[in-house]
Fold these 3 entries.
Entry 1:
Amino acid sequence: MTAPELYEEPHNTDSDAYRPKKRWRRWVVVIGVILVVIGLVVSLTGVWRLFDPNPATPVEVELELPAQPVADGFGAQTPNWTDCGDGFECADVHAPLDWDEPGGETIRLHMVKQPATSGDPIGTLFVNPGGPGASGADYVRNAIDAAVGKPIQRDFDVIGWDPRGVGSSSAVSCLDAAEMDEYLFGVSDSSAERGSTQWIEEAVASSQEFGAACSENTGELLAHVDTLSTVHDLDMLRQLVGDEHLNYLGYSYGTHIGARYAETFPERAGRLVLDGVLDPTATEADVIREQTLGFELALRSYVTACLGSQDCPLSGSVDFAMGKVSELLDEVDNAALEGSDGRILSASTMLTAIITPLYAESNWGYLNSLFESVADGDPDIAFALADSYYGRLDGEYLDNSTEAFQAINCLDYPNEVNPERMREQAAELERIAPTIGRFQGFGDVSCAGWPHKGVEERAPVRAAGADPILVVGTTGDPATPYRWAESLAEQLESGVLLRFEGEGHTAYGQNACVNEVVESYLLDGTVPTSGVTCS
């Protein structure tokens, strides 16, 4: 495979469609829904790892848990805040394993705080970067300036915490690094046709194996990492810092935590900002469809911009160049491109590599290098991008975000297998997203064999009686489409919509107008007119 064959438009473009062999990554962890949230993790945690390879390393400290809560309840704990370097403080606290049985087993929750730089905080702002599976503690500790602006840091104590199941809190654990490599990057020898009964059965079996490993290595916690349990944890943390109302900034999946908090505790919801919104009513199929279309459009926007630049590896019309990207995915699926570490690049991993830079327009240049290198038969850049997506470095996984992601999502979405419905949905994905859609079907299989059934209903959020809630949506967001922000703002009794006309996932920190509106709201309580637009 040579660069000219891939990127130059031939005189005759009426050749037969490329017919890939039946070859794919062992089983995609979550085909489709993974883009909702692992993708969101990448944009807010993985990307800083990718584009800032030397983040600050937290100081290792011994953290002492408070005395075990008894009669006064979990909200009466006094966190033992300990200096953990560079002006940050760390603490661990208890939470019940099961909020329906608070007298039973307990779990640990880990927090990192940057005290208000003014020395006189007006309160605490809790921050969640998304996921599910992203470490809020690491986000604040390693990327505080990406998490919140300087004006917020000046007046708020800023706390990031690892939700239950994540990171340094009581965490989901499934596979060791070698096993995770096989799960994510291994290539199946199966001859089953994609979408066939045999293919679905083999995919479900793989999901069952993964779920069984998670159950064995995680224990009872695996059944209690749902979002509503995290909402109760967050209300407990609010009590621990002494705030009457919760002030909160949630990105991506973090908007779902915030929305469900407002629905569950509307009288305690203070100034909530939800940026890059996940629609609480969206089903798994909705998520897969909207994400697939969103990334198709984002890829098209990249191609359009690329063709207008001098260093673009693509050529021809936008439609022709999109077709060549599609052919490249098929060629990768057919050719055993071996990386320097022995891994074989599959179309699924290649698609992950493509999606990773699409979360931020400033990262589109990485796609130039990706397409050029893979066309020359070198998959190492593709693996580097995919590794960032999964939090993998030098053969080790820096966190448990992939495992936590699946564990949380499998509780937050109903998990059942309906082959005929999945086939219909897969056909729709290929129709609406001709470049990437054929790799995005059959996402239902990922949780079909999960040890615990989904517990959350995809119900609207009203938050009746809550103070104004600021909902931020970006018109060109590939991961959480703008229509989801519109939907949530309409559902919320007090929702206020801020529209950002731009590209990329999430808006705060990316645009001066958005920054001003968000910070005025958090600092002064200034509520903008709903529907105000920044560009």
Entry 2:
Amino acid sequence: MAELTKTPAAKEVKLADPREASIEPSTQEMILRAQKLQIETVFDRAVTMKPCAIGLQGICCKNCSMGPCRLPLPKGGIQGEDTRKGLCGATANTICARNFARMVAAGSSAHSDHGRAVAETFLSVARKETKDYTIKDPAKLIQIAPYFDVATTVEVDGKKMDRDLDEIALGVAEAAVAEFGKTGGTLSYLKRAPKPLQEKWKKEGVMPRSIDREVVEIMHRTAMGVDQDYKNLTKQATRCSLGDGWGGAMIGTDLQDVMFGSPTPLQAEANLGVMKEDHVNIIVHGHEPLLSEMIVAAAQSQEMVDYAKSKGAKGIQLAGICCTANEILQRHGVPPAGNFLQQELAIITGACDAMIVDVQCIFQNLANVAKCFHTKLITTHPIAKMEQDNVVHIEFDEHHAMEDANRIVKMSIDNFQNRGADVMIPHHKTTQIAGFGVESIRYHLGGSFRGDYFTLNDNIINGRIRGIAGVVGCNNARTKHNEEHITLIKELIKNDVIVLTTGCSAIAAGIHGLLTPGAAAVHCGPGLAEVCETVGIPPVLHLGSCVDNSRILLAATEVVKAGGLGNDICDLPAAGSAPEWMSEKAIAIGQYFVSSGVYTVFGYHMPLDGAPEFKDYLYREMENIYGGKWDCEPDPIKHAHKMIAHIDKKRKELGIDKARERVLMDMADRQALGVE
């Protein structure tokens, strides 16, 4: 084992208490193992490095070289007029709003650039420029084509006939790529939202014109000396975030479904215990499934399995970290080894032969940890390299996708023989059901012929289901790993709130046993438990990766369409949450959910406290404009009950707050109903 990244023994260093760092046993075991091996992890760094107090308040401006200008709140808070100003005169509200908008721009860029990569690959498929990707879900292609104004039928001799699938694919691909830089009109997918919501956006002037333009405009507006009105800055942040949620991210999700297949519920395992000592262990980590889809195909090929056996392994164990894990889980049943804060720990097992990364949420410290073991760390994306000399870069090209994947898997297998004897794989893993989507939820609610969201609406109206919660987002080393996610979700389902989850929150729910139908009997209130038992679904539905939050928007839209619960998303007894958020992507997601009418609560902390007026605008006034608003609550129980209180408020507004007596109907009662 190399000595390069060990903490110097002579130096007195504060270390994380494993039991205080995480509620998850395998994570605790691996933190302790890392400390015994004197290998620093994110959990230890969180103890030794404290966040900037002024940055936490959102009032540090470094947008020009006269700064950074720091505007701390005076002791005792604001008394009278707030006179704090930067060198240029920028107020605390302006600085805080600029910082917030820039987070929205960065987060939107990340998810939308993911969507762009998928759209460009799909264009290669449509043009027959690659053999490795195909159209696996033609029904989904035909479903989304009209939103891009691409015809799916053609008239021949006065009769309508199905149009050639290749022509539809090319039309959709070209239109999807154009969405990122179109020069006129607004985004095509906005028409998927409920009509009243579209009217709100139009009235407020926040209909995104193109995905890239809104990001660029935020960067312009937040440059020194441009937009100095926090309400106007928030308006542009709204437009940019909608370009992500109803644009780039939604395009990415849909075209992934078209190329790789729409997810359907399947069973898999979760946690670090999925790794196997006698197998080649390959971990894929990141967010774009273009490469990971090919890695799955290569690792499962008989040629590579035989090659692994020739090197002394019994086979190949593929697993994932972060949203790449969710992508290959929901389509192939490949198990997640962990979420964001567990990425270093997968290497610390000593059994990881290769970790293959692409973009987003990847610790640079992985390279330092890999030096202590035999692990090959392989970067694959042209925009995401690492400076350390022990990192291998194999640039992925979708035109030679399978060739690149085979090369990477072969390199991983070759490294199996370099594994040391000091291997410690935790014995913790759980079973989960994942792979839900808008279509599969519809099917589970009523089968092939009766499937619809009416069933869900009926059970919300009759009170068995109190409401809907979207619980999503990251882990944050400033909070106890997984605790906020799990405590919050358990409190929601105990109170008959069904949970839709994505991202690292979904992985946490899987690891802690909440993604099985059996969890309903253990953790749910009687109403939700009854529905889950009858329908055969878990009380927490895994809807995919972070980019798949668009599935939650579309599921909410389907609930509106099914009727009985209002005319817009803001009318629904529903709320959103990101209890352990970390990334700028979470801020972009939060803003597009708020702007779509969803009450959205974040945990940990929001960088707004230094600008009380701007904070009040996000937390209160936005509800008057869009029907949704921001909130923050670090305590997970209080957090859950804020969401429940909002759900109850919406139930009262809809007139469904009173429990309805359940009546057993005899034949005479049924006949009296009549038939229309």
Entry 3:
Amino acid sequence: MSHWSFYFLAKLGLFHAGRLDFHWQLNLLLALALLWPLAPGRMKTWRVWLAWPLALALLYYDSYLPPIGRVLAQIPALTNFRLDYLGELLGRTIEGRTVLGALAAFAIYLLLARRIRFATVAFVGILSVPLSNTLLLSPVSAGSTTTQASSAPGTAGATTPTATQDPDSQLQAFYASEARRTLHLSSNGATPPFDIIVLQVCSLSWDDLDLVGMRDNPLFKRFDAVFSRFNSAASYSGPAALRLARGACGQVSHHDLYEGADPACYLFPSLERLGYHTHGLLNHDGAFDDFAKTLETRAGLAGTLELPSGVPVTMHSFDGSPIYADGPLLSRWWHQRLAQGAQPAALYYNTITLHDGNRIDGVASRSSLDTYKPRLTRLLADFDQFITELETTDRPVVLLMIPEHGAGLRGDRFQISGMREIPNPRITQVPAALKIIGLPKGQHADTVVVDRPVSYFDINALVLDMLQRSPFAAGSPSLADRLKNLQTTTFVAENDDVVMMREPDGKYLMRTGKSAWVDYTP
């Protein structure tokens, strides 16, 4: 095999280090094709020229990078990225120390190649992979017993598996259970008693907060309830926005997000029917990936989006488009809302201040990973100031902060920092929070941390309860009492090609496309 032995040995080393998958059958076929003796001549030359593209394609297939079909589909979007951001992504994909390590290993290989038959070592290594897979990385058995799911106390109909069951059946049982969950928003015929403001933040998870040391930011102590296990169920902005918008019904598959649904599932049209004046506001132009169009055509926000002009531009996105200052933008909207009179208002606000690839004006030489913490500090300070501004007026408000997904700052062996193809819990468990503004003095208690698995439907059920039993009315239940009956949702997250599911024992399973379920251990 000449020096092709190094190709297989290097891949085996990365496989055993957890940095690469290894499809041993295909690698074995390629190794046999390269080992087969051929006399010098045209056939041998053709084999070399054919082997290189096959080896590179197999290397990509063995990697944890997204399927090549998805990459090709994203090429039109990639052409909009700034060159410096593309360079930053390339730097994350190819680590300098990995390259240096590979060069050192190749130098050692060349020194020993005349004394050791590395082809034999390579074949032994390839054939050892099936045994390694059997002992360490075996897929979840598809023949395990299916156990009837049941509802735990306080879940109000949410289905939770009680024992190990076939993953496909478990997933279908989850969807079937969620399909039966529907809220019917009403305020008992009265004028809704408070405004509703939803802040949807792109690229913020608990894991991101931990990594930059900001989990204990003072802002979270200003909320009345913080949900430590809220699952955004998505790792991209469009699906996350749709899941929030359809939060009056149970969780559906990624595919069904883009199908028609019962009008009662859509939060903001339902609020309009109750008498709310709905608003949509972004701190960006919403052009990338047709985000604004998706909100209008699929999220029930048609005719509500307002332009983010008239406030300072603080940074530019990965495609060069302007990003507006969150604090001034929210403050401007609030003053406009106060001028509109007594009709209750419902705002959907989306910010991409934390999105990967953003460049702060004046510090363009720093990577977006380096500027994440300063951007987060500014965003949370803007939200803190906005809460203070809300509290200085007489309007009762229920404020919700529900991030879309995390930034994936940490990365793992399956995907580089900033990549979100796999909707793992580090990315989809986000710091959702709720604050009731306008309660009489003395009715506020310490922040309640809700450590139960919840998602959009559960938060919407809580808001519905407050619409029907206003927290501003005399004798109304406290928030702590309402949270005792909070509904829960089993952890399932997905994007177009990957599904992530939590087992009853706390482990996570992953399925890519139609492949087998495997344990997900970052």
